[in-house]
Amino acid sequence: MSQQFDVVVIGGGPGGYVAAIRAAQLGFNTACVDAYKSPEGKPSLGGTCLNVGCIPSKALLQSSENFHAVQHDFAKHGITVDNAKMDVAEMLKRKDGIITKNAGGIAFLFKKNKVANVHGLGALKGRQGERWVIEVSDNGAVVDTLEASHVIIATGSSPRPLPGVAIDNQLVLDNAGALALAEVPKRLGVIGAGVIGLEMGSVWKRLGSEVTILEAMPTFLAAADQQIAKEAFKTLTKDTGLEIQLGVKIGEIKTAGNTVSVAYELNGEAKTAEFDKLIVSIGRVPNTQGLGAEAVGLQVDERGFVVVDDHCHTNLPNVWAIGDVVRGPMLAHKASEEGVAVAERIAGQKPHVDFGVIPWVIYTSPEIAWVGKTEEQLKAEGVEYKKGTSGFAANGRALGLGHAQGTVKILADAKTDRILGLHMIGPMVSELVTEGVVAMEFKAASEDLARIVHAHPSLSEVVHEAALAADKRALHG
């Protein structure tokens, strides 16, 4: 006898588990099906983000930044540390502990909200009356069958493969392998100068690796505002010490013994680089394999994304899809918001998710963050705008922290003064960018930010100063 539910969510990542909790809060009998297992073979909720993505990478970034501070920054504070050493095993143990704690927290929230936690791979098998049948399998064997009035697909994404290159997570690594290196490689290669490549490259560079990043695009961080991107490139190459080569055409990748060789072309010149480890991070692709899409007629586009409308509804009745498996930015917080919105739509509410006000963050040091339109986009769209910029160099709080690098830039409509974008590089801008998100959600003008009292001394004063600069009345610049 199948278990019957009002809502079944397939996928327990930041989109899926949040959707399940919200659906349960709204009174629906809800189940969440998730197939992820830890390296020890135990079910672990949270998806890629928690297990092998956002959360563990931030843990390693913090560890590496602490080690770098001991070696290079503490002396300026009058603190001397001799013979500092990094215990990689202990660093990984801490990272794994954070994952375990967070995954346990999600399981607790399921229990608290009465969400049925079903482990296995969920697949759509068809309709039985007004209900969808979902078959759950584990290691190829069917372990459960569920029925649901509504199905929310939240199956996430996987690393994009590089044709002809096998990921073994020994010599050639994906994001999971990059987070689990047992020792610091002397020479680390990274293919792809995106978020994962820059963050993982930064971690292992600070711990002692020689890091070379090979990027196919001729422009660094093409999605970011180019004023900020150029500053980021300079800082990451000069201060962090990453070697970043742009406009690279990757050729044959070969492994021999304990090394990986990468043949590539740069500015028409053939080159070869040898590494002890190679991280491949060239983007991600949606997870639809094994979902049963073809069998039930679920529409999937040529790139593998589940096709949805503006409300995340698929072409099938009462089947929804959210997060990385659908259009839009592949960001955990975007998935979560879509999950909440879908649960509320099932309940008859009318929520809204504005893709134009979703923040982006890269957790390098300094951090890079933005929301809204870039200056390049506004120029391409013919939008008349004004801008204000301010730096962290004269900010008292940044100087006290010892991280006084970076810039904040506000873009506003030339006629209405409405904020169109906020772009920044600097200390803790992952937190500061939310000021722009809130302002833009409330359709604020740059004058609104300029007239809000900001605490002194605080990093947020740089945002205030940029807003003042947009009206050509900066006080400290």
TrEMBL record:
<dbReference type="GO" id="GO:0004148">
    <property type="term" value="F:dihydrolipoyl dehydrogenase (NADH) activity"/>
</dbReference>
<keyword id="KW-1015">Disulfide bond</keyword>
<feature type="domain" description="Pyridine nucleotide-disulphide oxidoreductase dimerisation">
    <location>
        <begin position="358"/>
        <end position="467"/>
    </location>
</feature>
<dbReference type="InterPro" id="IPR004099">
    <property type="entry name" value="Pyr_nucl-diS_OxRdtase_dimer"/>
</dbReference>
<dbReference type="InterPro" id="IPR001100">
    <property type="entry name" value="Pyr_nuc-diS_OxRdtase"/>
</dbReference>
<keyword id="KW-0520">NAD</keyword>
<dbReference type="InterPro" id="IPR050151">
    <property type="entry name" value="Class-I_Pyr_Nuc-Dis_Oxidored"/>
</dbReference>
<dbReference type="InterPro" id="IPR006258">
    <property type="entry name" value="Lipoamide_DH"/>
</dbReference>
<dbReference type="InterPro" id="IPR012999">
    <property type="entry name" value="Pyr_OxRdtase_I_AS"/>
</dbReference>
<keyword id="KW-0676">Redox-active center</keyword>
<comment type="similarity">
    <text>Belongs to the class-I pyridine nucleotide-disulfide oxidoreductase family.</text>
</comment>
<feature type="domain" description="FAD/NAD(P)-binding">
    <location>
        <begin position="5"/>
        <end position="339"/>
    </location>
</feature>
<keyword id="KW-0560">Oxidoreductase</keyword>
<keyword id="KW-0274">FAD</keyword>
<dbReference type="Pfam" id="PF02852">
    <property type="entry name" value="Pyr_redox_dim"/>
</dbReference>
<dbReference type="InterPro" id="IPR036188">
    <property type="entry name" value="FAD/NAD-bd_sf"/>
</dbReference>
<dbReference type="InterPro" id="IPR016156">
    <property type="entry name" value="FAD/NAD-linked_Rdtase_dimer_sf"/>
</dbReference>
<protein>
    <recommendedName>
        <fullName>Dihydrolipoyl dehydrogenase</fullName>
        <ecNumber>1.8.1.4</ecNumber>
    </recommendedName>
</protein>
<keyword id="KW-0963">Cytoplasm</keyword>
<keyword id="KW-0285">Flavoprotein</keyword>
<dbReference type="Pfam" id="PF07992">
    <property type="entry name" value="Pyr_redox_2"/>
</dbReference>
<dbReference type="InterPro" id="IPR023753">
    <property type="entry name" value="FAD/NAD-binding_dom"/>
</dbReference>
